[in-house]
Amino acid sequence: MGFDDRMRTLVVGGTSGIGRAVVEALQERPGEVVAASRTTGFDISDPVMVKAFFEQHGGFDHLVITAGSQAPGGNLSELDLTVAKAAFETKFWGTVAAVQAAVPHIRPGGTITLTTGFLARRTVPGTFVKTTMNAALEATVKILARELAPLRVNAVSPGLTKTEAYAGMTTEARAQMYQNAAGNLPAGRVAEAQDLAAGYLFAIDTPSVTGTVIDIEGGALVA
To answer: Which tens digit of pLDDT belongs to each residue from 17-27?
Structure first.
């Protein structure tokens, strides 16, 4: 499906980080881009709000979901399950609710692209919530690619990416984290948000890609 002035893309999580980079990349093309996030009054964890959002915006062509949640770390024995469930409620069930509400409004030839994370397939102690939450979304992509065909469903799986997610760190600590990571990655660099945006455009643009997880993590999965 080519892009023209009638094309409409909705980006959930599109006002910051990776989502904003996706919006900016799409704005270089013909068509309309709608960015939604908590800062615009959209809460992906509220099913009523999610349903109303898609009903309000009517027909569109592409859905990108980059909205995430703050997942608690630590070993299972020390994990606050209430906080863990809240993280799942936002990223996993919020994403599922958004897809369910969006599907009736997606035009033929459209796409859905979700966001997971490299920890879905990398075993790191203390990341139980992030690992299971993202692994669940990757399994969901496979199922939905079959259930919703010929609508195409994919996911982009980031590794460490330079975004404002780390704004709470000091400048020195953040720079040291990026430097250490780059030294351990086969790519020799930490991804920029624009690198990730290219993955979402690839998923949208490539007619034969569905049920696929696109890894953009600097080689962290093979390091």
So the answer is: 999 999 999 99
Tokens of 143: 């199922």
Q: What is the pTM of this model?
A: 0.94
User: What's the residue count for the chain?
Assistant: 223
Reading the block at residue 7, the tokens are 């094309």
Q: Can you tell me which residue has the tokens 């409620």?
A: 89
pLDDT tens profile 177-222: 999 999 999 999 999 999 999 999 999 999 999 999 999 999 999 9
Dihedral angle sign, alpha carbons of residues 72, 216, 67, 152:
negative
Query: Taking a C-beta distance cutoff of 8 angstroms, is the pair 90, 42 a contact?
Result: no
Assess contact for 80 and 91: CB atoms under 8 A.
no
Nearest to 158 by CA among 190, 181, 132, 126: 190
